[in-house]
Amino acid sequence: MLLAAARRFTVLLAILSGLTAGISLLVALALDASPGDAVPRGLYVLGCFLLLIGVFAGIRGPLRPKGGDEARDAMGGLFGIGIFSQGIRTASADERRDARSTSWLFFCLGLALIALGVAIDGRTSLS
Question: pTM for this structure?
Answer without folding.
Answer: 0.78
